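--- STAGE predict ---
source: upstream dedup step, 1 unique chain passed
mode: sequence only
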Amino acid sequence: MASTSDFRNGFVLEFKNGYYAIVEFQHVKPGKGGAFVRTKLKNVETGAVIDHTFRAGESVTEVRLDRKKFQYLYEDGGLYYCMDEETYEQIPVNATAFGSATEFLVENLSITLLLHGDQVLLAELPNFVEAEVIRTDPGVRGDTASGGTKPATIASGATINVPLFINEGDVIRVDTRTRAYMERVSS
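--- STAGE serialize ---
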């Protein structure tokens, strides 16, 4: 058992018949009445975010999750197969564990899986991935003054906005959390 004084971002607790990770929290001490903790909780299985307020000192059940390194191999019939980097055991993972990050999956990508026993609750991709641009409109010389962007499709199939000077065949770095172009790695 843990209490609200143990809360931190990423803390996982059992709540309403599910596992929830704390996205953000705030301890509030009003002038009148007892203190409380306002939280945003993310369901680690579905990705749904809810708001909940706990009384200060309230007991909660902490869930211990194991973080293990895996290598993404391939997708087959809605299941994503990953290999444990230590034991070389392959396991299937549901798409819900990845959420919208499936669009950045490429073969042999190193990922982290959060496990509760043998159950995969959440898959985390690296914050940045390098990907080749496979389709985009050509840039026009002198069109960079406005600092505009254009859509580009990368090798994993995701479409992101890139600066006008990016061309097909360029390798770029993408932030998987925000879907934002970071920099051109090579051309």
